[in-house]
Specification:
three-stranded mixed sheet, 221 residues, glycoprotein, Cupredoxin, Immunoglobulin-like, lipoprotein, rod-shaped, alpha+beta, cell membrane
Amino acid sequence: MGFERYLASVLIVIMLSFITSSQGYKFYVGGRDGWVVSPSENYNHWAERNRFQVNDTLFFKYKKGSDSVLLVTREDYFSCNTKNPIQSLTEGDSLFTFDRSGPFFFITGNADNCKKGQKLIVVVMAVRHKPQQQPPSPSPSSAVTTAPVSPPTLPIPETNPPVVSPKSSEAPSDAVEPAPPEHRSGSFKLVCSTWLVLGFGIWVSMALGLENVVCFLVLNY
């Protein structure tokens, strides 16, 4: 039971702190004295003890018609010039919310009271944004882009015409060679034999004087 109460109180504190941080903090200028000519603490000393952020609010306590609060430039602040205010608060118990960071200059609407010290400088702190996490830088190996690999180029076959070997002057091995001319040895032998017989016959006829034999041989030839 005690743990549940502790947990509930922690959650309430967290919620209140979240609401306060989102809506800003309300500061009472001058404390119990309010917005007067001679506060118990100098307004600028009071401002230096505090830290102001965007969305914080200043509460100026005064009676309506008896005083006012003017938001002015730096030059008008030091010169207590009340004629050209940036913003005028005259309704009494005025509230002013910081909408930006940087310095803000406030003076009273009474120039004499401003010269006596009824003025305030508030410096609002700059808004701190959470640093954004940057993506990790790519490593050198991954940063190198891979060039597209082109398909291998196939060699183009040569289209040279087939080489025709010159015709050989020699005849093919299986060609039939012409038969050599026949020698007419038989006719030559026949002629020789005939002339031998004829010569022999003439010799016989001359020797024997037989004309009949010669005629026989001539006729047979």
